[in-house]
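Recap quiz, item 2
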Amino acid sequence: MSSVMSSESTPPGARPIGKTGPWTADAAESCLEGDLSDADSDETLMARVRAGDREAFRILVTRHVDRIVGLARRMLGNAEAEDIAQEVFLKVWTRRAQWRPAGGAFRTWLYRVALNQCIDRTRKRVPVPLDEAPEVPDQADGPLEVCDARETAARLRAALQMIPERQRIAITLYYHEDLTAAQVATIMSLKLNAVESLLKRGRQNLRALLG
Amino acid sequence: MSPKQFRVLIETFGADIAKWPPDQRASAMELLASSTEAQDLLAKALDLDRVLNAPEPPLSADQRDALVDKIMNDLDESEG
């Protein structure tokens, strides 16, 4: 099986996440007819997207774009998140024929595409010397709760940039996306005990950075 | 379950016991009911969990609409 990322788009050293193969022939043909609805499942919409239905794709994008922007913010910081989301959904469209319902939920596939895009982007970055890297901001003293929530997210984002990539992925999927360790293992194509180790080390590192 | 085992689980899976391995949850809850050490560990873990669970601010409706439009335009360009 080939990875989600094509070999030509994966720089040397990058470790693509997940695997995919050709879409199996048991696609629900019945999904391809009838009116579209916001209530349609991801998988129903994706069956139509696979047949080239742009309106179905627009519903999927609208449904998941916040999630992917949020994931990209956690993985790479705020500045590039919307660009990443654009790239991710373009990739979903161009590789729609690779999606197979028998391979798991659409959301799992989407996470894999998104994380591989984030990894690609990270590999292309020019390394910032350690003494120029942004520090994790101190906790704000301000009483405003709205600012507080944004500042908490910003502090966490900065701290996440300072831990190893695989810990960052595992922690983001487990806490921000509220997945189980088993689901994280599926998305990262790792054994459960490997994910548990990443979660433990990631949590220890973040406690030290955020404490 | 001993407090030491409880600590290992909380350091791995966080403070939300519902996300712990199913076969550990009942004994964790039993320990929690009787051990102040476990209760302290949980309280500290909850503080960190609150930060780790912090949501990213959602896009505004305008931002979302603009981004969705950009993405849909990308399809035309990619196939143009």
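The longest helix of chain B spans residues 61-79.
The mean pLDDT of chain B is 94.
End of item.
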